[in-house]
Amino acid sequence: MNGQVRERPMLTTVTRLDTSAIRKQFPALYRTENGRPVTWFDGPGGSQVPHSVIEAISGFLVRGGSNHGGVFTASRDSEEVHEAARTAVGDLLGVGPDDYVVFGMNMTSLNLALSRALSADWGPGDEVVVTRLDHDANIAPWLLAATDRGATVRWVPFDTTTYRLDLASLEEAVGPRTKVVAVTHASNAIGTIVDVKEATRIAHEVGAVVVVDAVHFAPHGLIDMAGIGCDFLLASAYKFFGPHLGAMAGSGQLLEKLDAYKVRPAPATGPGKWETGTQSFEALAGVIAAVDHIAGLSPTSADRRQQISDAYAAINKHAVGLGERFLGGLPDAVTVFGITDDITARTPTYAVEMEGYSTRRLATELADRGIYVTDGDYYAMEVMRSLRRADGGLVRIGFLHYTTEEEVDRLLAALHDLAIN
């Protein structure tokens, strides 16, 4: 199992982030292009990493690592790193005492394996519920599983005026034959934060299993899996300042009950039952450092979970300030697709389009100025279809804890310049 019972933090210390000090920890932020400093607004597609993560990964490789099962020290070192990574990610995700933390190549591969296991006993008449606000990694695996088993897929829309998930439609979609409800914690495209606790309550009332995609939310807000009450929650370390690695936290009871698709010598019980092949031990060392980086943003000497809670309070405050600055300074030619009346109901991830520019042209013009943004659908295909932007998608601009007000001003200046040319 994954550690001891963690008490929910009662008090949170809200401090102002020292962005200057944070930025000194990230070597990539000093990159230049064509003589200009690069401004990284592509964080929703993957964050940069601090020195501590780089050093943890290289340090493991320099010391030398061996596979599990040996009687020698290097093998035991790998096992210790593996278990320490489970504990660190458990602290980050707020898992319960009986939950498992499982690692894999990425969130998508973990979810594909989970969908295959959960759907093993499905048949015609069974149902799975997905939302049009989700990344395809929490949609396609369930569509494939439903097709394989002859099950029915039910869709939950989001309101294209308010940009919020329609929980009333979720209540209508679930029923006695619902096997799984798959829902995002926050949209990777338009930033909407979903009330996943309420979605879980609705799903559990009909006995459905709940799978939450927390990949996009992880660098922005405190995740509390135990408080949400969901059965499975997935994240990706490269979104929260770590290496490319996926993590899945799940109900230990369910993971023990389900059959995993694995090779025969793999463990028959415990989290190792769900980890295929040899894990990237050096990446696991980097994951620990990434979680400790977030915890280290707190000025307190509390336990790591409390530090993480404090850190996210400061990150949220920083994000709100940047969001207000960004939204308040946009030229009239720019349209924002997403919540603008309550910044606390969203992550600092903004999908926009600009009059007179295709999304690719706008992204290219900004890139030529050393401003990195992404364009397209970012695998949020159903979001773009709902917004009638399936052809070219939108331009996505994301802020992280290392984003500065000066960088936001630089972006706004570039958009104003493009708007009049």
Briefly characterize the structure.
The protein has 14 helices and 15 strands.
Can you characterise this structure?
This protein has 421 residues and is an alpha/beta fold. It has 2 domains: 19-50 and 304-419, Aspartate Aminotransferase, domain 1; 55-293, Type I PLP-dependent aspartate aminotransferase-like (Major domain) (Aspartate Aminotransferase, domain 2, 3-Layer(aba) Sandwich). Helices cover 38% and strands 15% of the residues. The chain has 14 helices and 15 strands. It has helices spanning 19-23, 51-63, 73-93, 107-118, 140-149, 167-173, 196-205, 225-228, 252-257, 281-295, 304-329, 359-368, 381-386, 405-419; strands at residues 32-33, 36-37, 39-40, 99-104, 127-131, 152-156, 178-184, 209-213, 232-236, 246-251, 334-337, 349-354, 371-372, 374-376, 394-398. The strands form 4 sheets. The chain has a 7-stranded mixed β-sheet, sandwiched between helices. Helix 10 packs across helix 11 (304-329) and helix 11 (304-329) packs parallel to helix 14 (405-419). The longest helix is centred in the C-terminal third of the chain and has 26 residues, at 304-329.
Biggest β-sheet description: 7 strands, mixed
- Approximately what portion of the residues adopt beta-strand conformation? 15-25%
Order of helices and strands: HEEEHHEHEHEHEHEHEEHHHEEHEEHEH
Based on secondary structure, the structural category is: alpha/beta
Q: How many strands?
A: 15
Percent helix? 25-40%
C-alpha termini separation: 60 Å
Cα radius of gyration in angstroms: 21 Å
